[in-house]
Amino acid sequence: MPTEIAIVVYEGFDELDAVAPYEVFSNAADRGCDLEVSLRTLDSRDRITASHGLRIETEGLLADADPDLVLVPGGGWNDRAEASAWAEAEKGDLPRALAELHERGVELAAVCTGGMLLAEAGILDGRPAVTHESALDDLRETDARTDAEVVDARVVDDGDVLTAGGVTSGLDLALHLVARLCGEEVAGDVAETIEYEPRGEIYRS
Question: Given 12, 67, 142, 152, which is the most exposed site by the fewest CB atoms within 10 A?
């Protein structure tokens, strides 16, 4: 059975946070890595509008998938935008869904301020984590997140929970996951294809 990866998107997500990992995973699958990747939403809708105006269609509801890993993009956190990761944290539905997935044993990964949604769910309590540089104080100081150990790294791998810094670090996170799933050679081939040189430290707990 392939490893199923669901990237959960919402109104105001940052395009690159989701699309960059999607491309990495898709390229890995093309090279024989036994995984499937899909874009999912929490609730039913025809299209999602991202933070810079890109409109996308998804492949169905997160509840209808059976993922081994769910990746959460960030977007709009610091602007407190009406459509953003901040808005999703305030509503609470997505953090609750992520907490339930984690309780069921689903691995979770977050790019940029997607990590704040994991924090809101209580998933980062007592764990090493990172988020976008501009949201690190929120990760340290907000009541629900005071137990997270903020790490100075590009990617933090805490086993079944992974977080990455801002935006382009999603490429590093995805390539790291491909290396975990299918080996360094496949990850290297994908990095070469997309002409990206992985950068920054990966912290492993």
Answer: 152
